[in-house]
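tokens incoming
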């Protein structure tokens, strides 16, 4: 064989790997060579979600597990590796992610219940603000798949003079129902006279009567108790009261518990993000379950901004087409119409995209849309668009959870201590192997040392590369996997060198014994490493959390050790066999075997050839 070819191949692998790591990384030279560390090494964030049911009982175990799986899919799709999503007790789900991902981790636990509702009316929660409707547009365009273009934070317009208020309807009436829920009755009783005054305000008169109400200090003073309501109490108010009372602000509406406007058969009040405009919304006629897919993409026609493309199912397409036709034609005359969204003299209605308690966008429908649409706008980032798409794609959570604001940061100090301890353990393990190798094998110990160092460098480069490409993070369990792989590597040395001694005992010269020992040891080495790799694969497939990190690290290190065995160890032994030092019993590490072979000659009975 020609050892130089194998060594040049190994050198090319190192050059390409570290060239990619350094050349395509970002930050300083040191930062480009830093692998991603897991939660237990650099700290991170945990959030505990508590499942909430209507009667306060524990949720069904199957629904809790289904919710956990959906949350796990959402976290994994964001590229957050080594994240842990586990159930605790009969109603808790604990989410742990490495690093500080507070905004994202809050969102993965939201129900993500999507509703498409017509906008019936709009008003600003600030008493001094003018009535307005946020305006956006949705048009079929020239493409075969028309899209509904909307901005997550569309600019507000103030066409108060041309506003057509929503018609009176029993569903939108602010008056409490004849048989209010116990929670609603308790809140109305707490408000006292304020509830009676609010019940007398008609939402259809709000656009014209807002100014007079604002200038009536007596009425405004009576309504002040609404300002002291908690978000949970606001959630049980009649829809009309939420809409007309200025003290019920968008801040309170956005802070309502998840699932507050869950029922698609009831009208609702919601606000857009970063907006003080309250929207009175019709019943939900198209739901998130009517979608077949959602994906985050770049909108090249809007300056490479991010958008979310929606694809409706066959049944959902019929519902979406009917809703956009109804909004475009304004056949029932019930939707909000402003001068900003008129199309050819025909009034055009807005359709709000409502996710949980918040309006994502409220575009004016400029045409009848079909199976595909989009939610777009300058407010989307890659992360927020991806998160929304995954929430819609993986479906709404089957349970409602509290505790999205219950975040805890895990200190990185303890993680750094673990990292130092893990690296120290790995260093001690490698040092012991090297010391034993030099003591027992002498010159051959040099081959072992160089092999371990090259294997460590190759593994480190792959860690950085995989962390950047697929989000793999190094955890304490991963370090344990690498330490265990040292034993696997040491076994392959022992197999090779002991087979070499057997060949010399059979009377062969060291130079001829090296290739024969390699041929016989190679199968055993491959088999042993293959068993370890298969065990690691099984652990990775059936394990969760730290077990998968251990399995991945063990499998990776074992695979790379095979690369070093074929491209370095065997060629290096072939080169050493040609040197005078290899023939010396004291230097080579073959010791008494080589000395006895010279004194006694070949053994009279050759050793049986192994299969």
């Amino acid at each position: 064989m020609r050892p130089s070819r194998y060594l040049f191949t190994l050198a090319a692998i190192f050059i390409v790997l570290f060239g990619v790591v350094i050349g395509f990384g970002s930050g300083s030279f040191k930062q480009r060579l830093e692998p991603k560390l897991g939660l237990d090494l650099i700290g991170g964030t945990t959030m505990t979600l508590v499942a909430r049911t209507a009667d306060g009982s524990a949720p069904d175990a199957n629904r809790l597990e289904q919710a956990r799986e959906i949350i796990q899919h959402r976290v994994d799709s964001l590229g957050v590796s080594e994240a842990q999503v586990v159930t605790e007790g009969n109603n808790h789900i604990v989410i742990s992610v490495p690093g500080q991902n507070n905004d994202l981790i809050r969102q993965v636990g939201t129900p993500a219940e999507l509703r498409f509702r017509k906008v019936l009316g709009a008003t600003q929660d600030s008493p001094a603000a003018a009535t307005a409707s946020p305006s956006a547009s949705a048009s079929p365009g020239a493409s075969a798949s028309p899209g509904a273009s909307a901005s997550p934070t569309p600019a507000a317009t103030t066409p108060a003079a041309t506003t057509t208020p929503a018609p009176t309807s029993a569903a939108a009436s602010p008056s409490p129902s004849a048989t209010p829920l116990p929670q609603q009755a308790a809140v109305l009783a707490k408000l006292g006279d304020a509830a009676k005054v609010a019940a007398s305000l008609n939402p259809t008169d709000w656009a014209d009567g807002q100014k007079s109400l604002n200038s009536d200090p007596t009425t405004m003073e009576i309504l002040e108790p609404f300002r002291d309501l908690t978000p949970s109490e606001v959630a049980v108010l009649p829809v009309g009261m939420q809409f007309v009372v200025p003290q019920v602000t968008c801040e309170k509406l956005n802070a309502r518990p998840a699932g507050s406007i869950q029922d698609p058969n009831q009208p609702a009040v919601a606000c857009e993000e970063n907006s003080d405009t309250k929207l009175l919304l019709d019943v939900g006629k198209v739901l998130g379950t009517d979608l077949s897919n959602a994906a985050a993409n770049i909108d090249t026609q809007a300056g490479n901004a991010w958008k979310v493309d929606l694809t409706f199912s066959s049944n959902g397409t019929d519902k979406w087409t009917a809703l956009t036709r109804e909004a475009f034609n304004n056949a029932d005359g019930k939707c909000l119409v402003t001068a900003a969204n008129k199309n050819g003299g025909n009034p055009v209605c807005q359709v709000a995209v409502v996710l949980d308690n918040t309006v994502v966008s409220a575009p004016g429908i400029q045409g009848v849309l079909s199976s595909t649409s989009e939610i777009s706008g300058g407010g989307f980032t890659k992360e927020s668009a991806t998160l929304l798409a995954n929430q819609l794609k993986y479906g709404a959570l089957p349970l409602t959870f509290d505790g999205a604001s219950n975040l805890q940061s895990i200190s990185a100090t303890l993680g750094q201590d673990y990292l130092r301890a893990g690296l120290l353990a790995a260093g001690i393990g490698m040092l012991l192997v090297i010391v034993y190798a030099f003591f027992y094998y002498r010159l051959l110990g040099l081959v072992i040392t160089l092999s371990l160092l090259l294997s460590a460098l190759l593994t480190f480069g792959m860690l950085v590369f995989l962390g950047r490409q697929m989000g793999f993070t190094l955890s304490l369990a991963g370090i344990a996997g690498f330490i265990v792989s040292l034993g696997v590597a040491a076994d392959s040395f022992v197999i090779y060198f002991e087979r070499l001694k057997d060949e010399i005992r059979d009377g062969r010269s060291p130079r001829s014994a090296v290739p024969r020992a390699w041929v016989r040891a190679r199968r055993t080495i491959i088999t042993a490493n293959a068993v370890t790799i298969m065990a690691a694969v099984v652990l990775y497939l059936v394990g969760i959390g730290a077990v998968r990190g251990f399995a991945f690290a063990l499998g990776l290190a074992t695979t790379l050790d095979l690369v070093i065995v074929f491209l370095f160890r065997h060629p290096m032994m072939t080169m050493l066999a040609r040197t005078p030092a290899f023939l010396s019993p004291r230097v080579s590490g073959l010791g008494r075997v080589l000395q006895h072979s010279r004194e006694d000659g070949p053994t009279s009975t050759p050793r049986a050839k192994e299969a």
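note: The chain has three domains: 44-109+406-410, 114-394, 412-600.
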